[in-house]
Description:
The complex is a heterodimer. By secondary structure, chain A is mostly helical. Chain A has 16 helices and no strands.
Amino acid sequence: MTIDLAQSPFWLVVAAAVVVLTPLTHGGGRRWALALLNASLLFLLLRTWALVILAGALAALVLARIVGRRQGLVGTALLALGSIALLALFIIHKRPELASAAHAGWLSPLLVAVGFSYVSLRVIELWRAAFEERLEKIGLAGAVNYLLPFHMLAAGPIQSYDDFVAQPAVPDRLSFDQVLDAVGRIVWGLFKKYVLAHCVMQLGSTSWHASGPYHFLELHLQYLYLYLDFSAYSDIAVGVGTLIGVLTPENFNHPYLARNITEFWERWHISLSMWLRRNLFMPMQLAMARRDVGPLTSAVIAIGITFLICGAWHALTVGFLFWGLYQAAGLIVCHFYGTMLRKYLGGPGFKRYHANLPIRIVSTIITIEFFTYSLLLVGMPWRSTW
Amino acid sequence: MSISAPTKLILIRLLKTAWIAIQLALILVFMQRGSFFFYQGF
């Protein structure tokens, strides 16, 4: 399914959201108005099929409520069933040919339209909150707003459940400068997408027909293209979020300046990295610490599994599984190297090492090269990520 | 020559607005050349 956002109702809903939400000062009214706006984009995109998506959000909320109330075996069993259903939908989303074989091909366009990879991560956060008895009374409107935020549907960012419930019911009124900055952010995102990323693709892409040194240059240009294209969407989402008063996390922080791959993942697709840290890496680390697994062994296992799943989340292909393992290998080497440096250089020596400009420049270049070559593993086509 | 704070604020706002206008103009020029938004989903 291909949606031309330039002509899609997205901007209509943005305009409606600004007009409707800005004067609302009642928390409940605002919540329902936002839910209707979120649902309206679904109806405009999918017509009556949007009801299926909304029913899914309701089912996710009902399951969270049941799990939140019935801890123990029943809660765990329900959560397991829900997780199997979520995984099945995820596989259908990633491998639509399997859906067609199972006569469920009608589901694929719906899952694509809502960006199901992102929705599934939000559902997991919701269920995890329920399981850990942190579930707030968010209601149907809250569930729709959390699971299906219209401005974060296509390519994130992924708002954490805790951030979602912690944001004020009625945001502060924006100043003129804040509005100007938000509009500037949206336009900057569009400029990156329409002008900069487009120029990089038009001028640099040979669709991998070139060989020799140009092949490597094309690889670097694709990294640049990916950054411009993906971060553009995040700029638009953050700008729209600011205008409509919905907390929207930053997703990029100059990843090309990262001095190692650990820092890179703190700067690239930040909301995904944070999700992986909250929901996979930290729980695994804690579980292993309780079983007296050594810190280095547990770090290797937790990083390996986390990034294997990260690869699978991007695409259910062998290439992306290897891509995840490649990232994990880089992170593990980085972890060991950092531990070793701290041990041999000591505190002051490590600080001097960090402050050394030539080392910083070389490290940054190595990090860029490391990530760029990972694109070889997945045979990334030149196309938009959203 | 020193610029007063209110003048500085107005100048900054004007510059930001001009930069937005320039970007919008370029976006419109590039949009004439075709459609770029093809959402593949993730």
